[in-house]
Amino acid sequence: MNKALQAVRGMRDVLPEESLGWQAVESTLTAILKQFSYAELQLPLLEFTDLFARGVGEATDIVEKEMYVLNDRDGDSLALRPEGTAGCVRALQEHGLLYNQTQKVFYRGPMFRYEKPQRGRYRQFSQVGAEVFGFAGPDVDAELIVMCQRFWEALGIEGHVRLEINTLGSGGARQAYRDALVAYLTPLRDQLDEDSQRRLQTNPMRILDSKEAATQALLAEAPALIEFVDPESVAHFEQLQNLLQQLGVPFLVNPKLVRGLDYYTHTVFEWITESLGSQGTICGGGRYDGLVERLGGRATPAAGFGAGLDRIALLQEVVGSANLPKLVDIYICYGGDLSGAAMQLADRVRSALPTLRVRTHMGGGNFKKQLKRADGSGADWAVILGEQELADGTVMLKNLRNGEQEAVSEAQALQRLAAASPHISA
Ligand code: HAM
């Protein structure tokens, strides 16, 4: 097939049935974010490439090899955003919203990374992210984590994810550890895998994340990050653990968790599932107290997370916890030339039952054909309007699942539909 008629590799079409799952995840997450008083910040998909180089870090995989970069007609180098945090800081800073004030915002939408596509990993994927500015304490870290826990509970996947947390300490502690790790690994360089050899120069802490068994064996004797962490960060981390215990959120301390973006300090965390194979991280985040300053602002404590919608929707599907609406709930059939009356009836049904999806038959045909379509649409109910019903002021209400039908007044039909539809009050 002509290549131009296929989706670009790693760019996915989310088809209508799957979209229902997505919308359910996105609306659940954003409803909870609003409950926690986070406000939406809508950000552009394009930013100057340099924002990510400075924000996420030159030596990270994301910036080094995964960005979609283009030159616009002015010769500026722009990048499709690979993540949301840098753009969020840029926007709040640019609009003076970080000066002497606190902020709690969320964003959603597509991110782009040129990674090797596989199940759960795409080149265009979607995140819901939250960011908080102006609070230095562990209570904010805990609130972000609790909010995630509430997401998973609302989606029925809380039994399929685990929370891993770690502390990277202050920027200075991180640098001291980095130096110690390089000093330890440099004599062993030849025994490291190829990726780790490269990272030894560029981003040594990412070696801790290596999936290679031989590299992990060498790391067993390496200096431990926690030994370098300053006492203040240790206290912050202990308070966070204390809060999580009080709030009943189970966690595991993973001393090797470092995350793939350079801006983190202190707390980092990931939510991981075993049900999606190797792409099991459904959400990741942490504190990034140095980023605002690094991007030209005043030193501002900050923390946040990004949750991957593609993976969350996939996980819900895998564990069967999705409780999805149908594409069509009610199918309206009509006789002869009553299409105008049928469309009016459909409008009244939509006004009375605003959460239900009402489809009016289109394209003519006898009742038999229309009812076949009604059945094929997945709707549970057909509302049938014929000449007789129109004259009597009634409709024929047919339960498409058991085939029973009855002539009732329109008001009665609406009452029965309301009573029979579980998501009507949603
Ligand atoms: P991240 O860990 O790079 O963090 O991405 C967050 C989440 O996005 C991941 O846990 C994963 O669920 C999803 N994700 C990442 N890459 C892909 C992909 N190629 N395909 C599908 N899903 C993917 C960040 O982006 C940070 N900005 C999070 C953050 C916000 N930290 C502080 N504030």
Architecture overview:
- The chain is an alpha+beta fold.
- 38% of the residues lie in helices and 21% in strands.
- The protein has an eight-stranded mixed beta sheet with strand order 1-5-6-11-10-9-7-8. A five-stranded mixed beta sheet has the order 13-12-14-15-16, sandwiched between helices. A three-stranded antiparallel beta sheet has the order 2-4-3.
- A hairpin with a 5-residue loop joins strand 15 and strand 16.
- The mean pLDDT is 94.
- Bound molecules: histidyl-adenosine monophosphate.
- Histidyl-adenosine monophosphate (HAM) binds next to strand 6, strand 10, strand 11 and helix 11.
Write the layout of secondary structure elements.
Blueprint lengths: L15 H20 L3 E2 L5 E3 H7 L5 H5 L3 E3 L5 E4 L4 H10 L8 E10 L11 E10 L4 H18 L5 E7 L3 H15 L8 H9 L10 H7 L11 H16 L5 E2 L11 E9 L7 E7 L3 H4 L7 E7 H11 L10 E5 L4 H14 L5 E3 L6 H10 L4 E5 L1 H6 L1 E6 L5 E5 H11 L6
Parallel strand pairs: 1-5, 7-8, 12-13, 12-14
Antiparallel strand pairs: 2-4, 3-4, 5-6, 6-11, 7-9, 9-10, 10-11, 14-15, 15-16
The site of histidyl-adenosine monophosphate has 26 residues, from β6, β10, β11 and α11.
Task: Throw out a few tags for this protein.
elongated, 426 residues, 8-stranded mixed sheet, binds histidyl-adenosine monophosphate, alpha+beta, single chain
Outline of the structure:
The chain has 15 helices and 16 strands. It has helices at residues 16-35, 49-55, 61-65, 85-94, 138-155, 171-185, 194-202, 213-219, 231-246, 291-294, 309-319, 339-352, 367-376, 387-392, 410-420; strands at 39-40, 46-48, 69-71, 77-80, 103-112, 124-133, 161-167, 252-253, 265-273, 281-287, 302-308, 330-334, 358-360, 381-385, 394-399, 405-409. Histidyl-adenosine monophosphate is lined by residues 83-85, 113, 115, 121-122, 125, 127, 129, 131, 260-261, 281-286, 288, 304-306, 308, 310-311.
